[in-house]
Design goal:
The complex is a heterodimer of chains A (212) and B (208). Chain A has 212 residues and is an alpha+beta fold. Helices cover 32% and strands 35% of the residues of chain A. Chain A has helices spanning 17-31, 50-56, 90-97, 150-165, 174-178, 186-202; strands spanning 3-9, 34-48, 62-68, 74-79, 84-88, 102-104, 110-119, 122-131, 134-144. In chain A, strands 1, 2, 3, 4, 5, 6, 7, 8 and 9 form a 9-stranded antiparallel sheet that branches. In chain A, strand 3 (62-68) and strand 4 form a beta hairpin. Classes of the chains: A alpha+beta (212), B alpha+beta (208).
């Protein structure tokens, strides 16, 4: 586990999501990055069922329950700007029991899947973000393995990102700011994915012609 | 470098419906030593294990008549151990053929920000206590002998007071639903602890 930056790559002009993903992965292969299987990050949204609203009078908060193939036995539960709970996968069973209080928002499941590449100390994952049957965007995750303090290796990560993504290089993830000099952990990566998924959810759907 | 195993699908776990089979009893403080001695003889040969846990019971109230109850437990003597979140369903007494109380249960290991997270979910703490005692195992059976302490100042686990002059004894097995045969083994084991302690299937409704 190192320090990770998750960002969105816009679809290249005149290209489809799939073609843009291929462009990126080809670039990695040219660099000499080694293909290491696949990855998947998923996110299910739950909202407070109407039943609890009346008695507590608080606005319905959204809760996100996520999984990451990098941590196959864990389940991450998050609130926006709130705590991130790391639990084992029995947490999914608990959500079934909590059906009367928390309901999964219909058709809100969003996930990203793609190939995992190792390039020296960097782990790169380029994924297609899908919601239901439609491709909604591209996620790029870059992890620098040997360091766990974000502020110590951000410039190194940035240099790699600039080489790889060019003008689409992201700024420092907000989770870095919250935890200055603190040890970076898996929960920070999940917060970044949650933010990315929320951003993509709000964006216009890619026209059907562009999906293929 | 060897590629780590990466599965395409995250393992979305435990759809299996797990049940806890439970027998309960109690011993007075002065009988503790002889019970422990007996258990050491009967149970799996392992290092004597003790525990000191802080348990908080959280409620989520909705419009339903009964609130949703979750138990958060942390070890006070093993720092760095994960927190334990537990859901327990309605206990079923069943008929005479089943020798133990049965209730649905979900056990989850979590990170240490569990209480903050439960509050964020809308849960409120109802009560808390400290449990201190001994743990034994025999196969899949778990035997806990422990004393419950009342917390005098909320949140401060340093000032506690014993709730009674006795120890609670619990014999439990967590198994997939429908495996009622485990209650036979439990009864046989409970027989061997007589007359030091009488473990029974106690209907919690009777105590209310």
């Amino acid at each position: 586990m190192g320090v990770t930056c998750v960002s969105q790559m816009p679809v290249a002009e005149g290209k489809s999501v799939q073609q843009t993903v291929e462009l990126l992965t080809r670039k990695l292969e040219m660099l000499g990055a080694e293909k290491q299987g696949t990855f998947c990050v998923d996110c299910e949204t739950y909202h407070t069922a109407a039943s609890t609203l009346g008695s507590q009078g608080q606005p319905g908060k959204l809760m996100y329950v996520m999984h990451n193939s990098e941590y196959p036995l864990s389940c991450f539960a998050l609130f926006e700007n709130g705590p991130c709970l790391i639990a084992d996968t029995n947490f999914d069973v608990l959500m079934v029991k909590l059906k009367g209080f928390f309901q999964s928002a219909k058709a809100s499941k969003i996930e990203t899947r793609g190939t995992r590449y190792q390039y020296c100390d960097f782990l790169v994952k380029v994924g297609t973000v899908t919601m239901g049957p439609s491709a909604r965007g591209i996620s790029v995750e870059v992890e620098y393995g040997p360091c766990v303090v974000a502020s110590d290796c951000w410039s190194l990560l940035l240099e790699f990102l600039q080489n790889f993504l060019g003008t689409h290089t992201p700024g420092a993830p907000t989770v870095f700011g919250n935890r200055h000099d603190a040890v970076y952990g898996p929960a920070d990566t999940m917060v970044q994915y949650m933010e990315l998924f929320n951003k993509i959810r709000k964006q216009q759907q890619v026209p059907v012609a562009g999906i293929r | 470098m060897e590629a780590p195993p990466v599965t395409m699908m995250p393992v979305t776990g435990g759809t299996i419906n797990m049940m806890e089979y439970l027998l309960q009893g109690s011993v007075l403080d002065h009988s503790l030593e002889s019970l422990i001695h007996r258990l050491r003889g009967l149970c799996d040969n392992m290092e004597p294990e003790t525990f000191l846990d802080h348990e908080m019971v959280f409620l989520l109230k909705g419009q339903q008549a009964s609130p949703f109850v979750l138990r958060a437990r942390r070890s006070m003597d093993r720092t760095g151990a994960p927190w334990h979140l537990r859901y327990l369903g309605q206990p079923e007494m069943g008929d005479k053929n089943r020798h133990a109380l049965v209730r649905n249960c979900v056990d989850i290991a979590t990170s240490e920000n569990l209480t903050d997270f439960l509050m964020e979910m809308g849960f409120r703490m109802d009560h808390e206590f400290v449990a201190k005692g001994h743990l034994f195992r025999k196969g899949i059976m778990k035997i806990m002998v422990y004393k419950i302490f009342r917390i005098l100042v909320p949140g401060n686990t340093d000032s506690t007071e014993a709730l009674s002059l006795s120890y609670l004894v619990e014999l439990s097995v967590v198994a997939p639903a429908g495996q009622d045969m485990v209650s036979d083994d439990m009864r046989n084991f409970a027989e061997q602890l007589k007359p030091l302690v009488h473990l029974e299937k106690i209907d919690p409704k009777r105590l209310m």
